[in-house]
## 1
Amino acid sequence: MTVHASTPDSPSPDLSATLPEPSLDPADWDALRSLGHRMLDDTLDHLQSVRERPVWQAIPAEVAGRFGEPLPHTGAGLAAAYAAFERDVRPYPSGNIHPRFWGWVIGGGTPSGMLAELLAAGLNPNTGGFRQSPVLVERQAIAWCAEMLGFAPDTGGLFVSGASMANLLALTVARDAHFRQLGGNVREDGVMDGALHPVYTSTETHSCNQRAVELLGLGNRQLRRVPVDSEYRLDVAALRLTLKNDIARGERPLALIGTAGTVNTGAIDPLEALADVSEEFGLWFHVDGAFGALAALSPSLRERVAGLQRADSLAFDLHKWMSLPYGVGCVLVRDAGAHRRAFALTPEYLRHAERGIAAEAWWPSEYGPELSRGFSALKVWMELMTHGVQTYAAVIERNVAQAQLLARLIRQHPNLELCAPVPLNIVCFRFAPGGLSAEQTDQLNAELLMRLQESGQAVLSSTQLGGKYVLRCAIVNHRSREADFELLVKEVSLIGNALLAELDAPHSAIPTIYPNKENV
């Protein structure tokens, strides 16, 4: 191919004069406005009528098949895309906005939070830094979160996607501070001293903490899982013994993770005692308070998480018990300087200026791994202004009272068994009529759970406690009412009795859908 150089006598052709002008803005703003209003009205109708629909329904094969369609090379337009959403997406979510969704600790969202998300997307800022109001919004919202949970106004912090990321960031700061204290620089040299640097937590810790220590290069072997007591709380005496034995072997303990609200039962570790142990042994004290930390908002529940305010770092979610739209969690770090040292990296092209758009002193990107960041802070800021802390406290108190109501209904029922204490908002139970083997009871409850979910009446999940398969009801839903829990007990009883009848029928058995307890 011959390439001809341009000369003053033969100028380059003006391609812009021959190509159509591309744009991602609408050709007809009035039509977009009309469709946008319809989308908003449809969504508000969907939220307002949520109780009238099943909690969950299976996705038909025909619908699932459409998600295998090829990549579109020419656009069909927003109206067509919205029609596909209405047909194939809106009817088949997990159902967590429904008042009888209690399967996992997943918040239900709010209409006002949805609108805050709309405003954030319309502004579309990158909140990694810069002199802009969205960064100031985040800084103020973090200060409000610190105040809510008993931390000082100068606490370091950041909004992230959820508590999994918040735990990872907190333990990253802990690792950096630990090696600095030993005279090393883990950011420069990595974990290369050949010693073991264990992180201690309970056997009930959330799996995200294992992922965190793996990602930090410490390895799962260095996550020391300490036994729990009869109420599933970390056993402090066992912790002390483990620490003393590890130190005697020459190991260098790094951090202690306490849990405020375990995922299995809602158990709250003895945080005051753990703070004492951390001070005694020189450990970084981190609290995984994904949902349970927010009990501190309630004057009547605050004592249950006493010691939280002594933590060096805290991870919690706002999309769980505060019902903000997904996803937004928060990490708080008492020593803001240590927080920044663990992450800050300022190349020349990101240098802060004395004036202009880069003049802001606080850049969120220097407190975590992400430079490109959305405006999650807006929904936190607006929802706190909209509802106030007292309203959230009232919702949390009601959910805890509902958990106690459900526990009473279970105790009163002849065929239901309460399988763990109910210290907060999680109720573990099972259908246990007697006369069945342990394996049959497990199989019965596994099938009962599937039929309950498929009925659309309620969504629970399962876990394993003391070798038993149990049903788990996690209550963080601001739409739940007392009558919903009465309905739950009724439905569980009906399905359980129907399964018993099937067992009594000739040549019948409960389907084997629970073949391996290790996979629960």
## 2
Amino acid sequence: MHHATPLIGTIVAGLVVAFLMGALAQRLKISPIAGYLLAGVLVGPFTPGFVADGKLANELAEIGVILLMFGVGLHFSLRDLMAVKHIAIPGALVQIATATLLGMGLSWAMGWTPIAGFIFGLALSVASTVVLLRALQVRGLVETERGQIAIGWLIVEDIVMVLALVMLPPLARIATNPEGADLMAIAQPMAATLFKVAGFVVFMLVIGRRVIPHVLHWVVHTGSRELFRLAVLAIALGVAFGAAFVFEVSFALGAFFAGMILGETSLSRRAAEETLPLRDAFAVLFFVSVGMLFNPFVLVEQPLPLLATLGIVVIGKSIAAYAIARLFRKSNRTSLTIACSLAQIGEFSFILASLGTSLGVLPADARDLILAGAILSIFLNPFLFGWVTRMHERFSDDEPASGPPADQGHIIVIGHGRVGRHVAAALKQRPGSLVVIEDNPDKLASAQVEGMTTLRGDAIEPGLLERAGIERATALILAIPEGYEAGAIHQRARTLNPTLTVVARAHSEDEYQHLKQLGVSHIVRAEQETARRMVELLGQG
């Protein structure tokens, strides 16, 4: 019996086609994001075949934004946010102003009204939350200084867009009826919105900081992993919805503060692990929903305006962000990362475009250019990050204070967590040099306190193994718990040093077989080693 199931159809079509296109993109050695966007085009209304429900897809994508911002908040303390406010606040404001003026210039050339140009430029000024965070997470940059600046910048942009959404209706009324213009029509809703945002922040810092950790600690003591997972999701989604419903701030901002409050507790790492699978799935649906908005005919009907729009987003915003970061004496690498992170537009741009169209002040052509510019800038963003990564190797101003040893025959340890710190401590007692690579700042600080030579970053990041002196090393110890990631690092290390001895750890038979097929020298399986040691102790007793 047939049932009308638009929700199930949208989820199934989105995930299945996204998987196929993402796998194809991976096979072609390009970012899977490009495949997810193409999947959205294929299930969208502008191509033949099955058409997913666009409204449902957008709501599912919003869940992805909530979970992603919640995950970022788990790793981003209030101290981190305050540490970057001196650059994030002026930087975001100046960059928004620059992109808005450039957009207004293009709108003037197109013959649109000033209010249409203002909305158009504003829509081009704000980066996509999902794209920026996804790019930082994939490269292990969320907890680095450049990642924290980019996230702080994004938070300021979100707050500005919340104010803009409140300000646009009275502005539109003034633009369409100049004789009835009233400054109070703008001042009152803006003041009310600022008051609500401040009220939400105070509520989270005073009430949320006490209630959220207390609830989760109680759940942990029940011993139910299922209930803990449910509690984390309830907090993330509940706070985000409550922030939007009661305080009228964005879902993303509410989820970010919920994660930040929880991040101050000892349960933050476990909460991040529990939400990761859903976070990834709904992030994919976000890209699919963006792809569904893309009308390919725009490429033919308005090629020059589209190129100009894309130039503002990818080039204009990037130059402005880079210049601001350099003005604040940030390194080339940090400035390039910030510029590249912001060289795209996304969900707030769609909301502004829809609002402007519904108010009757934004032409349909402007909306189509915004959507097309978003699609193309999101598509290009992974390639820009790849270019920035290659550029990193040309600059030396970000080298760590404690660099790799200059002598021959040292050992490199990847990871300074539960296993890595014991391995490093044991090796430190032996003759020879040791280098520890770790991307978590707290674990890195622990290694530095113990007097170890360290490098910060993800070992899979191009150039990092070279900086650790992999060509001169005699051994590489992969102490990280992710077996498949360890396999990728092993392949890169063996390419640079074919004679290297590699020791890795595996948690499952699949990981063990995977590492074995890659030719890892020695593989340690925790369960087998534990069982062997227990039998040995039994024999001694």
## 3
Amino acid sequence: MSKNLSALSFRKGVEKNVFERMVDAADKAGTAEKNDVVHQMGQDHLFGDAITLGAVSFYDFLKKENEGKKVFVCNGSACLCAGTQDKLHHTLETHFKKEEIGHICCLGRCHEGGALQYQGKNYSGQSDDALAELVKTGKGDAEDRYAVVSHLQPAQLTAEFPGIDAYYAPFKKLIAGGDRDALGLELKESGLRGRGGAGFPLHFKWSSCRAAEGKDKYIVCNADEGDPGAYIDKYLMEKQPHSVLLGMMVAGWFAGAENGILYIRAEYPDSVTIINEAIEDLRAAGLLGKDILGSGFNFMLKSIKGAGAYICGEETALLASLEGQRPEVRTRPPFPTIEGLFRKPTIVNNVETLANIHAILTLGGKGYAQIGTPKSTGPKLLSLDSHFVRPGIYEVAMGTPLQTVIDLAGGFKTKVKALQIGGPLGGIVPMSHVGKLTIDFESFKYEGFMKGHAGVVSIPESMPMIEYIQHLFQFTADESCGKCFPCRLGSTRGKELIAKARSDSSYKIDRELITDLLDTMEQTSLCALGGGVPLPIKNALEHFGAELNSYFKA
């Protein structure tokens, strides 16, 4: 059935896709889950009402529960640990009815806390007076301020943009007479691994798509950076947008694709605006469209705004979303490079991965590989939360000690007992283990953690670890696509176990029971959501046993 739906969606193409129509309908009416809207979209795309309703009702910003909401409060891990959201919610209740206040996760304001979205704009760290003025006049300080620090000389991902002509010179050289085999060798020699968390070698993915049969191919930028605590991709899209777009254009030339799509989360409204402006600048410069600079290479770029679904950060769920289907994870193989968007060969990379391409073009593959370690090459960005003295974006070489990053940020403002690195699926690192870790894939894996996307959330000493574990189970239960039992049911059962132990002092959790639950989720979940969340919970149980023992049977 889903293949048939992919084919029906392909008939309309990228420009008239059903998902954008869903989002537009919700923007106008507060929800897309209205009978007439669902019916019309189902008719137009030959999906039928049930399929369309199944998709619409999945997204936070499209379903009926969103109707009537006027302000959204961030409930992500960083804001939770900042301890700002209860007060923020209470203050907003003096201006709005309870049913007018919704929740959202995550706005990328992890460096400040107190994050909310109002009238399509994000705010954080607002005083009570500033909030009152914002509600009264609709005007407020939405500026996003944080430190941007590079430990590299010269900087790569955080370097100042020199202008379109200079920045795109390597791209112009490629399409004018470059050799795709030669570029493939440079990519291989660079050793670049995906920055979305999995660390898959980029040259394998790109070469697979290039070799795939078919004239219709796509480049998709996974800009659905949903990990609470991460705002790396947000920084790149808003402060370095051309690094991302150039990476997509090079991927299109290499693989033989003519369409590039950026799937940008709705929680990042500024990213959507700035990326669209950058695309228009490229079009005006003659670097997009048919027969670019007389080279014979055709390429178009388009952004599509998401609708509030963490699971769309998983590449196959994202592709299903773009097709207007319910964003459920697909089984693999086949992989997206063989059957991706509309079941056509597709390269899916995240924002930071694509932003590294310019450095490979300018330094060469071997030059790029000189940054970092032999197995984890190149620069890496980290995003630090509000517990640091100087929170913000930090660029370091792969292999840099974690302690060095902490020192660059001036240490902590408050007493911190652990760091969760890599989002809600990343490991929980006790402060006693910080000195053992370097910023690379191997170090974290060897020590029993996971680097992931490298967003850093500080867990303060005042935060009960049992509360944080419940938060992780709750997050997974809320965000599961529901396709596989281990994730959908396991996260819910885990949340219930922790909640009962916290509310009833006479109830103790059976250790064998929760171990079996975590192992089942880890080993049998369809994707990294259900399969990943057991890691931080196991980390917490291992390293914070003294704090947690009272909740478990002896």
